[in-house]
Task: inverse folding
């Protein structure tokens, strides 16, 4: 990792004091919305961080950052990490400093947050259909390289009109469904017909294909993941050949996530990889198995929710201060870092019930624990700040600038 | 409903423009955190509201507001609605205008947001154990009537010390576990011993008992809910009698939620009711059955996520722009309002997959839908704004001031 990338931006300009024992918790925006101050100060010991707090262990984070950059560099493909996982300008900048061509976003407002923060190249890996949202995206393309996906012929004129109004040419990928059963035109001939419309539209630039196999990412068996990406690759290859036969440009074939990117990397047809969760590694991805049937260990858990035991009512039960408003539970319960024998068994809105009956020692009232989220992306979206920690000390405070940017 | 309460505060002082077709999406705080502007303007038609957006149908909301106030007034008990459901100062003010004695909060930072917004009486229905958090709460008690719960003897001196440092006397409820199997001291003698410690502490005022049966709230059968609250009531009554026998004050016995409050109201032992979700009615509570085995209809769905169909890839599938970052899924899938034959079958981070194969007409690209959240509290916590709508027009924009206030 080069020296520039190691210089994590510290939050030196922050003028409000944090919540610990002081009066000022939050700033009021002109609109009256209370924005919580960060739960820590730079230099503070980890155990003094207010809870619940989203924390990044910077050593594991840097390992992940460098490993993905190295992996993709060796493959000769482009890396465009997904910003929907972190929604954080500092992380996006570090990814670009490590060679990423830019970042992906899933929504126009999220793309806007990244562009406003200085990220020069953002691809919206998603469809946008509302005219006012298309105008917003087209306006962004005056400041940065901006692209998006299309899967429906009726949207092409709206898109071209918005680009024309903004006086720019917008990059467009035709999204095809390669097994994710979500958005996307059918591969092959239907995708070609849509691409021809894009190529003919006056203010659009046809760049190629978006072909993300989202459902393969969390398939546990390596052989099953490989089979899913082999099927996707066949569909992509057939579509690319049809593009070429019709003289349609197909400079970019984009896809791949943390669970499968090594497979797209060797497919011979993908050109750009879009992993997001690798930077954090959540409990869901940690259950994926590698080729030998063991849990894959290439990436380390770097993201945690730091929480405190605030009740020990007995019966083998300890209760932490982080529940449904501090984690997303769609991929199951959080794991207790360093204490695998303690189980997070049940959340309520502001509580987490831990079972410590199999632990050699009981959890103590006031004890603080690092919990590994089941699913990183929607968990990060709950927090205004992430606290960067190294060797038990707070090193940096990063705002989650695109938190709640879902429009 | 009186006239004062009908005057919803409109957001007139908001100086930023909203996202629709304009450059300014957000304001930057001194800390660099981007705060999204509201997704609507006052006076706008509902169909022009940007998506996804959290909306309140004000007629249903006012029905719920008035009905709970009337119900509790008739019972002769006090009403203290739970602010954790809405985290919104305007809603808290309307609840107080309808006779509530104040609001409940679940966290100190949430209580702080309400007190800063002018709510004069806030009870934290939860344990707080970190000394700096106790200092923050004690400081609040200089501005407002503030109370909290305790379930462990070791916290009593910390609490009293914080109150003494702030120069105030803090109201304390002893929390007992009446079947929720979460926080709480055992009822009866153990609760009495803890209460004696509180009563003897120099800067604390023993107010009584917190006895919330959280697990009974979503029990579908009325008879089962009644049985659960009957058991809870027995435990409370026994504990109250022991308090009296020992000369301990027990002015307040608090509990009850949207699913059971009518039962606590007639128990003869509870004095203060704490329902939260009634103001919104989510899909989870809507499945509770009344005494005749039918779905209870006393409260109306007033809270929705407004969303847009942004892909119709065929196969009976339509995809909306609201997924795991726009709803909490812990209580199941959202329901499609006014279109019960359309099913929300599966979320991903930013998408919702709808099955319209049983609908008489297919969903159209760009169509907007009102979706009823499975669980209101953690869904509200995802949004910076809620849009108040009446007769298809935007009437008010309310900031969710305590969004993310989990510390």
Result:
């Amino acid at each position: 990792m080069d020296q520039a990338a190691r210089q994590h931006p510290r939050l030196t300009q922050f003028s409000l004091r944090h919540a610990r024992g002081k009066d000022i918790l939050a700033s009021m925006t002109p609109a009256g919305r209370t924005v919580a101050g960060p739960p820590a100060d730079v230099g503070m010991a980890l155990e003094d961080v207010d809870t619940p707090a989203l924390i990044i262990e910077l050593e594991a984070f840097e390992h992940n950052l460098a490993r993905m950059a190295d992996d993709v560099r060796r493959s000769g493909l482009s890396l465009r990490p997904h910003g929907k996982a972190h929604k954080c300008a500092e992380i996006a900048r570090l990814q670009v400093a490590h060679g990423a061509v830019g970042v992906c976003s899933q929504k126009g407002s999220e793309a806007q947050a990244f562009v406003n923060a200085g990220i020069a190249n953002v691809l919206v890996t998603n469809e946008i259909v509302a005219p006012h949202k298309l105008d917003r995206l087209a306006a962004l393309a005056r400041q940065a390289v901006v692209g998006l996906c299309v899967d429906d012929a009726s949207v092409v004129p709206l898109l071209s009109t918005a680009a024309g109004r903004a006086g720019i040419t917008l990059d467009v990928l035709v999204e095809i469904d390669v097994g994710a059963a979500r958005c996307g035109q059918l591969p092959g001939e239907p995708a070609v017909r849509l691409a021809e419309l894009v190529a003919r539209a006056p203010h659009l630039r046809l760049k190629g294909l978006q072909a993300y196999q989202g459902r393969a990412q969390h398939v546990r068996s390596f052989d099953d993941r490989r089979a899913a990406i082999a099927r996707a690759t066949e569909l992509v290859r057939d579509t690319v050949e049809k593009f070429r036969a019709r003289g349609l440009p197909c400079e970019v074939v984009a896809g791949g996530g943390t669970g499968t990117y090594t497979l797209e990397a060797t497919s011979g047809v993908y050109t750009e990889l879009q992993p997001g969760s690798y930077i954090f590694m959540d409990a869901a991805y940690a259950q994926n198995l590698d080729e030998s049937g063991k849990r894959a260990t290439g990436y380390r858990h770097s993201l945690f929710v730091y929480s405190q035991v605030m009740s020990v009512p007995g019966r083998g039960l300890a209760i932490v201060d982080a529940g449904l408003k501090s984690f997303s539970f769609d991929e199951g319960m959080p794991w207790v870092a360093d204490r695998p024998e303690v189980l997070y068994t049940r959340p309520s809105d502001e509580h987490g019930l831990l079972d410590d009956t199999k632990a050699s020692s009981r959890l103590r009232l006031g004890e603080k624990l690092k919990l590994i989220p089941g699913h990183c992306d929607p968990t990060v979206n709950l927090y205004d700040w992430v606290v960067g920690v190294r060797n038990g000390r707070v090193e940096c405070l990063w705002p989650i600038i695109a938190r709640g940017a879902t429009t």
Summary: The domain at 60-283 of chain A is CATH 3.20.20.10 (TIM Barrel).
